[in-house]
């Protein structure tokens, strides 16, 4: 109602109609609210339909994410990505629901919604869904059902951002020291969220760590110094339980096994030394006694040795290279099965590429959009000379330059438009939940 009143203040005609409405017609019932929401939805969708009719290139990328609500209903958010007037647009076009979770139903639902938009599903260039088997299955997944139903090859990709995150998650699981670190952070989360402790906390909110979101892990590392300060303060608490827990967590946080590392740097000792300098300020190195077996005989005396500074450096050196090696292994496992040829084809559209506008390198992309190969071959020479003269760093820059020559180089323009239409992440669609 407030939205209606606000709008009527800016629209004299609407205000005139509003003044004639009887005062007892408040229009605040649930049925009226739902009807207004439905009308707003139809209007928003109609605007998208009008835009679809004016695509720069006749293709789009389908993106979809799912979630269950409390009634066990499957809610889908369907987003399409397309190019209009040289701009990349992503629009939420439908949020259908279903009580059935099978791949057949989900595929039918997505095709139905696309058809309702007056958009030919066969113009789909790419499918971008989550990695659940019901969506990603190579034989029985929704992505395969869509391809079978449309009788078209439409590549499927799992969101590359999610895949990169899984690389980090699995690397953590395989390195005990990292697993211990983030287990400690989860204990910290439960400790700090207590009302008495929360009132003392001055740092950024410490979120619960979840495998599908890396933000919590990063925030925890950024808060290291404030965490140590809070725990130190809690060790003086009059509450014995709080004091004991804070002392135990503080000991673990200050342990030499807790390291702040950067995984994205090159694998070499010089980088490790630089990270070690930064990391040292977050660690309190204490000499402690460790048990060491003097020999294989179980009856021999157990010896003690101190933990020296050089042992601490060696320990972190081992962890650092283990992180790099595990990350590289995970990257290889998760990305080796992707369509590398298609990614290379996209790179060939950049002026800085060694295969810039090479006909053979562009074949995977040209096959996907089904352009005229003979015409494309003749256009590439002209386009290469034309684009090379421009000062452009991105595909969008190149597309903007080609808009002037769109009629002369239609197939090259189609390739650039299709490349920008392709998307390998689900960031936009995830925001709708």
Automatic annotation (TrEMBL):
InterPro entries: RNaseH-like_sf. This is Uncharacterized protein LOC115219693. It comes from Octopus sinensis. The gene is LOC115219693.
